[in-house]
Design brief:
The structure is a homodimer of 363-residue chains. Chain A is of the alpha/beta class and 363 residues long. Chain A is 38% helix and 20% strand. Chain A contains 11 helices and 18 strands. Chain A is globular, with a radius of gyration of 21 Å. At the A-B interface, helix 7, strand 8, helix 8, helix 9 and strand 14 of A face helix 7, strand 8, helix 8, helix 9 and strand 14 of B. Strand 14 of chain A pairs antiparallel with strand 15 of chain B.
Chain lengths: 363, 363
C-alpha cells in the first residue's frame, strides 16, 4: 500500500537480499521507522514486543525469523530450537503456528546446506499467498460496496464504519476489512470511513487512521461510543470488520466492542460484514462460547502513551515527538481483548472465495 | 457522600458562612482541592470552565452565584445582569435556567436590602431539594437492587454496570444512577460496579471511579468496548445510567454510548434502568429524534491529559502529580456528546416517585 506516494508491503527484504524489513508499528502514526531484523533474536523481539502485530503478519515474520536463524545454524537441532522460540513469542496467535508448520514441512526433509535458500523462498511464497488472499477479499468486497453505492443517489459518499485495525499493517498488503475500502477508493468510489478509536490499545486511532491517511482515503476518528448514534442518524452505510477466529456456527471472535457495533447495525438496518481469509474459519470450534477470551494487561487500560503536546519538554526541532505516558485512572481495571458477535447479526462474510453466509466459510 | 471517611456535599458554604465551597472537579481523582467562590466572576468561571459539571450541580452553583453577585450590588439592574451572565455560562444546560428562574421568582419582588439573605436561603433550599430528590431515587433504586439480589444465590455479589458519571459529583449529594448503589452498599448488599471509562472525556474512569473508591464501593474500570462481553458472560446483573433529558415517548438522551449498552442488555436479558429526577422528563419533546445532539470540541477526542508516569519529570515528593497532554491521533475527529436510547430498550425508570414505565414519568 502507499506511504507518501510509494508502494510498500508491511514485510520484505532489505536491498542486501537477506535482512528482513518491517515497520516498528509501535511508533505509528507519529514516526515511520523501517527496521532491520538480522537475527532470530531480532525476529522474536519484533513479534513479542509488538513491533509487528496482526495474525497474518506475525506468521510471515516468524517464517522469515526461521530463515534468519538458519543462516547461523541450519542443523536439525537449531531448526527445532528456533521454531520453539518463535512459537512461544505470542502464545495465542494461531497463524504463528500455522506458518511455522508450513515452513517445517518444507525444511525438515532438506539437507542443512539447502535449508537457508529454501526458507527464504518459502517465506516469500507465504507472503505472496497472503497478499493474493487479501487482494481477492478486496475484490469481492469491492463488488459489495459497488452494489451498495448503486442504491444511493449519484454522487453520494458511501460511509463505512470499521473497528480496530484489519488493514495492510496486520497482513502483508491490502488487509482484510480494509481491502474492500482500498479497492473501492482506487476504483473511484466516493468513500468516507468512520474509524473507531478502539480502546484500550487505540489501534483504530493510531494504525487504521495512519493507513487511510497514507493512502488518501477520507476518514474521521470517533470514540467507540459514537458509532451507534451515527447509525441512528443514517450516517453509516455499512460496517466492515476483520476477525481473529470464526466458529463452525458462524459466530465471530474479534476485538472487544465489535459485538456492540453489530447490535447497533442490526437495530438500525445497516449491513454488517466480516472480512476474513478462509483460514480464519475454525470448523473444530463449535460456537463463539467455546472461544477463550484473552485477558490482557491492565496497564493498557490504565495508562496511555503519546507524543507530548504540553508542557513543552524542551524537544529538539526535527526530532520525532517526545512521548510521555500518563495515567487514566487510579482504580482497578479489567481488559478483556475480544468479544463474540453471534452469527445472526452478520449480514455476510467476505472471503477470498466470495461473499455470503456460512456456505462461503464451509466451502 | 464520603471522602476519606468524612461526609461532604459537592457544594456548600465555607465556615465564614458566605463564600461558596466547591470541588475543582477537573483535578479529580488526582487531587481533592476545595475552592472558594467569592464573586460572580468566580461562579461564572466555575461553571464555564467545568470546575463543576452535571446539570443539577450547575443549577445550584448558579443559584449561589446570584447570591454572591447580590452581596456586591443588590439593585434590579445588577440582579438582571448577573442572571444573564450566569445563564450564558453553559448555553445548553436546562437546569441552569430552571434554577435561575426559581431564584428570580423569590428575589425579584423583594426590596434590594432583603435580597442577599433571601438568595442564600433560597439557594440552600434548592440544594436541599436536590439532595432529597436524589435520596428518594436512591431509596426506590435500593428496592430494585434488593429484589434482584433476592433472585441470586445467598452471598452473591450483584454486578452493576454504569456509564459516565451520574453520581454525587453531578448533583448536591447521592447522585441519580449512583444513588441506588450507595444506598444498597450502605444497607449491606454485596455490590461490585463495572465503570465504563466513558470516552472521550473519561468521566467514568475519573469521576465515577473516584466517587466509588472514596465511598468504599468495590469497582473495576473497563473500556467502553468491554460491557457487551461482560453481559454475554453473565457478569452483569443490571445496568443503571442517568439521563440529560427524557422525551414524552420515553426515549432517553444520555452520554454517547449509552444506546450500545442498552442494546447489549436487551440482547442478553440484563435489566436496564434509567435513574432521573422527574424534572428531567420533558413532555414538550415528542421523541428522541427531536433532541438536538451537542457536537463538542474535537480536542477532547484527539488529546488526553493526565498525570505523567514517564518520563520522570523530577516531581517533588508530596506535590500533586504533574500533568501532561498527549496526542491520540493525527487524523480528523468527530465528537458527538450524546445518543438516544429508545424507550423499548428500557426496563424501568427510577425516579423520586417510584419505579416503573412511562407512568412514573407522566405522574
Amino acid at each position: 500500500m502507499r506511504i507518501e506516494g510509494a508502494h510498500h508491503r508491511s514485510i520484505g527484504l532489505w536491498e542486501d537480499g537477506w535482512a528482513v524489513k518491517v515497520l516498528d508499528q509501535r511508533l505509528l502514526p507519529w514516526e515511520v521507522r523501517w527496521v532491520r531484523l538480522e537475527t532470530l533474536d531480532h525476529a522474536c523481539a519484533a513479534i513479542a514486543d509488538m513491533w509487528v502485530r496482526g495474525a497474518p503478519l506475525i506468521g510471515i515474520t516468524a517464517a522469515y525469523g526461521l530463515a534468519l536463524a538458519l543462516r547461523e545454524d541450519a542443523s536439525d537441532a537449531a531448526l527445532e530450537a528456533a521454531s520453539a522460540r518463535l512459537s512461544a513469542t505470542r502464545p495465542t496467535a494461531i497463524n504463528l503456528r500455522w506458518a511455522l508448520d508450513r515452513m517445517r514441512a518444507a525444511l525438515d526433509p532438506l539437507a542443512p546446506g539447502l535449508r537457508v535458500a529454501a526458507a527464504y523462498a518459502r517465506a516469500g511464497e507465504l507472503g505472496d499467498e497472503d497478499e493474493a488472499l487479501c487482494a481477492a477479499i478486496g475484490g469481492h468486497g469491492l463488488e459489495v460496496l459497488r452494489t451498495l453505492a448503486a442504491t444511493r443517489p449519484p454522487g453520494s459518499v458511501l460511509n463505512i464504519l470499521t473497528h480496530c485495525n484489519a488493514g495492510w499493517l496486520a497482513t502483508v498488503d491490502w488487509g482484510t476489512a480494509l481491502a474492500p475500502i482500498y479497492r473501492a477508493h482506487d476504483a473511484g468510489l466516493k468513500l468516507h470511513v468512520w474509524v473507531d478509536e478502539t480502546r484500550p490499545r487505540n489501534q483504530g486511532a493510531l494504525l487504521t487512521a495512519f493507513e487511510l491517511a497514507s493512502h488518501g482515503v477520507p476518514h474521521t476518528v470517533i470514540s467507540d461510543n459514537a458509532g451507534g448514534l451515527l447509525m441512528q442518524r443514517g450516517q453509516v452505510d455499512a460496517v466492515i470488520v476483520g476477525t481473529d477466529r470464526v466458529a463452525a456456527n458462524g459466530d465471530v471472535c474479534n476485538k472487544v466492542g465489535t459485538y456492540l457495533k453489530a447490535l447497533a447495525a442490526h437495530d438500525t438496518g445497516v449491513p454488517f460484514y466480516v472480512a476474513l481469509p478462509y483460514s480464519t474459519f475454525d470448523p473444530a470450534c463449535p460456537d463463539g462460547a467455546s472461544i477463550p477470551i484473552e485477558e490482557r494487561s491492565g496497564t493498557e487500560q490504565s495508562t496511555l502513551t503519546g507524543p507530548v503536546l504540553e508542557p513543552d519538554l524542551g524537544l529538539e526541532p526535527g526530532r520525532p515527538p517526545r512521548q510521555a505516558t500518563v495515567r487514566l485512572t487510579g482504580s482497578p481495571v479489567a481488559n478483556p481483548a475480544f468479544d463474540i458477535t453471534p452469527a445472526r447479526l452478520i449480514s455476510a462474510y467476505i472471503t477470498e472465495r466470495g461473499v455470503g453466509g456460512l456456505e462461503v466459510l464451509r466451502g
